[in-house]
Amino acid sequence: MKKNQGGYAPEKASFREYLGIFKGIKLPWLFIILIFAATIGSTMAGLSVSFFTGDMVDANGDVPTAQLVSFALGYLAMAACSAGSVIFQGIASERINLGLRRKLWRKIIYTRQSCYDKDGGEMLISRVTTDCDFASKLLTTIVGFLSIAVSLYMYIFQMYGLSVKIANYVMLLVPASILIGWGYAKLKFLIAQKTQAMLAGSTAYLAERTRNLSMVKISNTQEQEIRLGEQKFQEQYVMQIKTGLMNAFYTSLQTLYSIISVVIPFAVGAGLVAKNVLTVGDVIAFYAIAGAVGTYFTNVIDSVGAIRQANGALARVINTMKLPDEQVEEGRDLDEPDADLHFVDVRFGYGEEDVLKQVTCQIPKHKVTAIIGSNGSGKTTLFKLTERLYDPRGGEVRFGATDAKEYNLHAWRKAFGMVAQGSPLLEGTIRENICYGCERMVSEEELVKVAKETGVYEFVSKLPDGFETLVAPGGENFSGGQRQCIAIARAMMCSPDYLLLDEATSNLDAKSERAVIDGLERLMRGRTTVVIAHSLAAIRHADHVIVLKDGKVNASGRPEEILAETDNYLIQVMNRKKPQMA
Question: CATH number of the domain at 341-573, out of 2.40.33.20, 3.30.9.10, 3.40.50.300, 3.30.1380.10?
Fold first, then answer.
C-alpha cells in the first residue's frame, strides 16, 4: 500500500467488508428503530414549534390558550425525542461494541501464533479497547445520517411552502456543504487513521515497557526510556492538536451556517413583508426552519467525516479478522496408543532464515529424551513445533507413522504438558493457576497432594489465604522458584501423556529442587518426556539424547554413545571449558 509523506499507510477496506463486521453479532434493531423514530419525532416537533412561533408573532399578543398549550407541548415533545435519541443511541452503541469485542477477542484467541510474532500481540490491545467503539459509531452514524436526510427533506419541503424565493437562497448552502463535507471527511479520515495508529503504537510501547520495568531499571536506561516516551507523547500531542483544529473548524462552520440562516430569511424576507407577500410571523417561522436546516447541513458534514473516521478504525479490525485461525477441532482424535514422535526433514524459521534446517530425529515413547545444544541451536523451536504452535515450512512432525497435522489441535495439546523456564502465571488465585487448563473437577485432596509433591504446599500453607491467595500480574508477588513450582504443579495436575520440560528446575533452591525432582520423577514414570538441557547433569537420567547445532541434528543416541563419539563433546556443545587438572 502506498504511504503518504508522513510514512504512514492508512488501512482501507470495502463497504462489504465493513458490513461483514456485524456478521454473527446480534444487532439491537429495536433501539436502532427507536433512534430513527425519535429523530423524526424531534423534527416534526421542531417544525410545529417553528410554525407556532410565527403564529404567535402574527397574533399581536392575542394568543389562544390552546395554541400556547400546543406550543409548550411541542417544545416538550422535541426535548423528549432529543433525549430519547441520545439514550437509545447510547444503549445501541454499547450493545454493538460488546458484541464486536466478544467476536474480536474470540478471533484473537484462536489466531495462529505466527500472527503475534511481529509485535508480540501488543498492537492488538487497541483493536479490542479502542477500535471496536467505531463499529457502533459507524452504524449509529449511518442511521443518524438517514434520519437527517429525511428531516432535511421535511424542513426543505416546509421552507418552499412558505417562500420559494427565500428557500432558493437557502439552498445555495447545498453545493457549498457538499464541497466542504468532502474535504472535511477526507482530512478527518487521514488524521483519525494516523491518530489511532499512533495511539496503538504508544499503547504497545507502554504495555511492553511497564511489563519489563525491572529490566529498564537494572539496565540503567531510565533516561533513554523517558526520551522515547516523551517522543511518543509529543506525537500524540501533535495529533491531538490537529484533531482540535478539525473540531474548531467544525465549530466555526456551525457558527457560519447559523449566521447565514439568520441573514438570508431576514434580508430577503424584509422585502417580501414590505410587499405584503409574507407576514412577519412567516419570516420568523422561516428563520427558525432555516436555522434548523443550517444545523442539519453541518450535521451531514460531521456525519460524513465520522463515517470516514470510523471506516479507518474498522479497517484495522477487519484486517485483524482476516488473520488465519487455528482449526483446533479439525482432524482425528488422538485416541491411539502412545507412539514415537518423529521429525522428518523439518525446516522452520520465524523470519526468512530457517532456525531448523532439515532436522530428522526421533523421540521414543515412554523414554526420557534430552535435547541439548548451545544457545540459538533450535531447542525451544523444536518444542514449539512439538506443541504445534507452528507448522513446519518443510518436512513433517509424525506421531508414529501419521503426520501430526491429521490430528485435531485440541486433542494434541491436551496430550502435552509444558513447563518452561520462567513459566508465566495468570492473574487469579493460586488454585486457579494450578488447575488452569484442567478439564475436570479437582478435589481439595488432589490439589494438596500435587502441591506437596511440587513444593508448592510448603509456601502456600504459610499464606493467610492459602490456595485462594491472589496472583499479581506476571506472578510478581512470588519468587522465581515459587512461580516455577506452581507451573510444574499445573503440568502435573493436567496429567499429560507427554512432558516437555525446559529447564524446569532452573529457578529452584536446593531444597525445592529436590522436592520438585521427586515429584517430576513420579510424573515421568511411564510417560514420554522431553527435556531441554543446558547442563551435563540434566542428561544423566536420560534414555536418549539429541544434540542440536546451528539448527541441525549433530548427533543422537544413548548418552554413553554420544559421550563416546568425541572427547568432551557435550562440554563443547554446552560452551563449557574442560576443567583444568591440578
Answer: 3.40.50.300
